[in-house]
Amino acid sequence: SATAPDQAQAVTAARVKQIEDGGGAVGVLARLHGATVRVVDVAVGRPSGRIDKEDAAPREAIEDAFRLGMAIADAEADSGADVLIPALVGVGGSTVAAALSGVLTGKDAAA
After folding, report:
1. What is the enclosing helix (H) or strand (E) of 100?
2. Which end of the chain is more exposed for a tag (fewer CB within 10 A), N or C?
3. What is the mean pLDDT of each run of 10 residues along the chain (111 residues)?
4. Which pLDDT value is given to residue 105?
């Protein structure tokens, strides 16, 4: 079911807490495969409205988030990580992530 915008932050916070506590599908899969989970808050500002009507976040905030992700990936690889699986936890964030991925890869985000 859809989550009301005023509930989105609470739902996201609950999901993050569950992952940090080792619960949910993420925790189960990590334990099954001897993997570690690292949660990093890369919030880029207030929740956005419709991304076809307004920016999801300021460009600088998005660029900063990408740079942070690259630095984390480099540090994890340098410390011996074999595989990195970035993930998104948040209500409505997958739409923005798909749009950004489409722009960055030159592919159709809906494909």
Report:
1. helix 93-105
2. N
3. 68 90 93 92 71 82 88 95 85 78 80 64
4. 86
- Reported residue count of the chain is 111
* CA dist 80 → 22, 29, 73 (Å): 22, 20, 11
Structure tokens at 12: 């996201």
Task: Specify whether the CB–CB gap between 74 and 36 falls below 8 A.
Answer: no
91, two tokens: 């209500």
Where do we find the tokens 């570690």? 36
**15 CB neighbour count, 10 Å cutoff:** 16
Residue 3 has a pLDDT of 61
Instruction: State the Cα–Cα distance between residues 33 and 77, nearest whole angstrom.
Output: 18
Q: Is 53 exposed, middle or buried (0-12, 13-18, 19+ CB in 10 A)?
A: exposed
Round to whole Å and give the CA distance between 27 and 11: 18
Q: Quick one: pLDDT at residue 96?
A: 77
Instruction: Quote the DSSP letter at residue 11.
Output: H
CB atoms within 10 A of CB 39: 11
